[in-house]
Amino acid sequence: MRPHLAVALLAAILAGQGSAQQQEPFEPEGYRTDQYRAPVPAALAGARVLSTAEAEEIWRAKSGAFVDVMPRPPKPKNLPEGTVWRDAPRRNIPGSIWLPDTGYGMLPPAMDDYLQRGLARASHGDKTALLVIYCLADCWMSWNAAKRAMAYGYSNIAWYRDGTDGWEGAKLPVEDAQPEPRPDQ
């Protein structure tokens, strides 16, 4: 092989390796505050990251509480009078508690309290109980909420990073969900 072709081939291989490494996002120190639907890190320091099979095993054994943090689409402002508004349905893992809008990077005090009360309910007040926190695949909301739960002192956090996308992809059951009542409702 000619030297210039070998150099070009090596450069192309190294460039490909660099771009592959950049596709896996790093784990930020704080919370993610924008672009919530984007590739997520492979890990969350202090939490166990679950595969779909592991999440299913916990669910079938009823050995952990599942917490869905999928945001709820807001009612559009300035709807014409008489317009009927129906919330978009949410289907989640059966038995989950749904705490919508608790995965944002910054939470107003009322929402922070809502998340803390919801986690206390899900864990029956036991900060060592296993909590499985999820949303959708490539959703930073669940990463943020799991990180925040650890900051509240919960010591047994599992982050199911594939969320309902992975669950439904495995043809596991889902059910219609209703959110926990929020402080602003």
Count of beta strands? 7
Shape: globular
Radius of gyration: 20 Å
Mean pLDDT: 87
At the first level of CATH, the class is Alpha Beta
Q: CATH homologous superfamily, by name? A: Rhodanese-like domain
CATH fold type: Oxidized Rhodanese, domain 1
Helical segment count: 5
How many distinct domains?
A: 1
Structural class: alpha/beta
The spatial strand order of the largest sheet comes to 1-6-5-2-4
State the end-to-end CA separation. 71 Å
Identify low-pLDDT runs.
5-22
What share of the residues does DSSP label as strand, in percent?
5-15%
The portion of residues assigned to helices is: 25-40%
The CATH architecture would be 3-Layer(aba) Sandwich
Using brief descriptors, characterize the structure shown:
alpha/beta; two-stranded antiparallel sheet; 185 residues; 5-stranded parallel sheet; Oxidized Rhodanese, domain 1
SSE blueprint:
Blueprint: H1 3-23, E1 48-49, H2 52-61, E2 65-68, E3 91-92, E4 97-98, H3 109-123, E5 131-134, H4 140-151, E6 157-160, H5 163-169, E7 175-176
Parallel strand pairs: 1-6, 2-4, 2-5, 5-6
Antiparallel strand pairs: 3-7
